[in-house]
Specification:
- The protein has a 3-stranded antiparallel sheet.
- The N terminus and C terminus are likely disordered.
- The protein is elongated.
- Helix 1 runs parallel beside helix 6 and helix 3 packs across helix 5.
- It is mainly α.
């Protein structure tokens, strides 16, 4: 339950860890249900772009006032997409006066990366092959 536990659980422990990769062992039903929620949140191009904009922002966080103009969507629609990303555990938010600031939760993106990494692949090799498509690493 502590943040320290989450960091350990999010690391790629291979088949012996709590979260084996997709290629190492069949996934348990409860893990598949939880992971599907995250992938469903990422399955929308607007939400994927929002996550990328948040993750790539210098300083690791961005105001909703800077996100909304990047889309041809209403503010309530952007807020809805951000809410879904937050419910999926990919981002966190903090209200500061009138505005809400968002940041990526690195343990969530690290867990996704660990699940998708081939067994035996080194972290450097998987980061190098991810290229510009990597999200949240180093933010």
């Amino acid at each position: 339950m502590s943040k320290q536990e989450l960091v350990v659980l999010g690391q790629d422990g291979g088949a012996d860890g709590c979260c084996p990769t997709l290629l190492a062992a069949p996934m348990a039903e409860d893990q598949a249900v939880e992971l599907a929620k995250v992938f469903k949140a990422l399955g929308d191009p607007v939400r994927l772009r929002l996550l990328s904009m948040i993750a790539s922002r210098e300083g690791g966080e961005i105001c909703v006032c800077d996100l909304t103009p990047a889309f041809d969507l209403s503010q309530p629609t952007i807020s809805h997409h951000l809410k879904l990303l937050k419910q999926a555990g990919l981002i966190a938010s903090e209200r500061r006066g009138t505005w809400v600031y968002y940041r990526v939760l690195p343990e969530a993106t690290d867990r996704l990366a660990a699940v998708l990494t081939r067994p035996g692949a080194s972290a450097g090799a998987s980061a190098g092959s991810a290229g510009a498509g990597s999200v949240g690493v180093g933010s």
